[in-house]
Amino acid sequence: NFKEFNWIKDNKFEEIGLIAQDLKEINENFISEKEDGLLILNEDSLRMYALKAIQELSTQNNELQQRIIKLEELING
Fold this sequence. Notes:
Elements: E1 3-9, E2 12-17, H1 20-26, E3 31-33, E4 39-41, H2 43-76
Antiparallel strand pairs: 1-2, 3-4
């Protein structure tokens, strides 16, 4: 779940994000642990999973569009 918060980090205001501990419960590859024990997001891993999800959704969307076209052809004759 995305969280909204007010936090200034590296002179940059961030207002939405993810909690590393939450992601660790889903998949440990989504986070990394720094030497001081701080958990941080593994953005490369998250990016790859997101791209794969986009690819799968695009395929599903194309299939559904084709089904709609076929159904419209049946309805309209």
